[in-house]
Amino acid sequence: MKPEFVDRGRELAWLEERFRSGGAELLVIYGRRRLGKTELLKRFLRSKRCIYFLVSRTSLRDNVESLKKKIAEFTGKRLYERLQVRGLGELLTYLAEEVERPCLVIDEFGYLVELTAGCSPTSRPRGTRSCRGGASF
Ligand SMILES: Nc1ncnc2c1ncn2[C@@H]1O[C@H](COP(=O)(O)OP(=O)(O)O)[C@@H](O)[C@H]1O
Ligand SMILES: [Mg+2]
User: Fold this and answer.
1) Helix H segments across the chain?
2) pLDDT of the residue at 63
3) What are the residues whose beta carbons fall under 8 Å from the beta carbon of 117, sequence distance 6 or more?
4) Does residue 42 have its Cβ closer than 6 Å to ligand 1?
5) Confidence class of residue 5 from pLDDT cuts 50, 70 and 90?
6) Which atom of ligand 1 is nearest to the CA of 107?
7) Among 67, 74, 75, 77, which residue has the least CB neighbours within 10 Å?
């Protein structure tokens, strides 16, 4: 049997408040693994028109491609799937121009930082944990 859902009323109310603020918001939700971050966001998103984007650890290119698909679905404009962009930053600029006050949830954001810094499991030399350092996109 699935355990009962632990009440996240306060967190949901806070997300709701930020959602309705009318301004630009950047919310960072962090905490140890299996704490319930994804579940909280999915509950919040049930009643919202937002894009939920789960980052994959494969490559930045893969992530750009899958976010393009998400944006195409969200806007109903297939053109986004074929859009040529230099990276995620540029893609997000298009989204901001296309949709007024877009709501985008990026789950596992840390993977993007890893990929940008060149320290993803697939790109770093075998047996090392080093990264190039510096992350931006
Ligand atoms: N509020 C909650 N009450 C009960 N179980 C929860 C709650 N939030 C998450 N869980 C369960 O805990 C586990 C981890 O949740 P998840 O959202 O994936 O964590 P995180 O994203 O922080 O790693 C999942 O099995 C999920 O179903
Ligand atoms: Mg999660």
Assistant:
1) 9-19, 37-45, 60-75, 79-82, 88-98, 109-116
2) 98
3) 131, 132, 133, 134, 135
4) no
5) confident
6) 21
7) 77
Q: What is the three-class DSSP state of 17?
A: helix
Distance of CA 75 to the CA centre of its chain: 17
Distance 82 CA to ligand 2 centre (A): 29
Ligand 2 ion: nearby residues, β-carbon < 5 Å: 37-38
CA of 136 to the centre of ligand 1 (A): 29
Q: Which residue has the tokens 């650890």?
A: 57
> Is-contact 91 67, C-beta < 8 A?
yes
d(CA 59, CA 116): 9
Helix (H, G, I), strand (E, B) or coil at 52: strand
- The number of the ligand 1 atom at minimal distance from the alpha carbon of 32 is 22
Q: Tell me: the pLDDT tens digits for 52-105? A: 999 999 999 999 999 999 999 999 999 999 999 999 999 999 999 999 999 999
Whether the CB of 36 sits within 6 Å of ligand 1 = yes
Q: Do residues 132 and 118 make contact, with C-beta atoms less than 8 angstroms apart?
A: yes
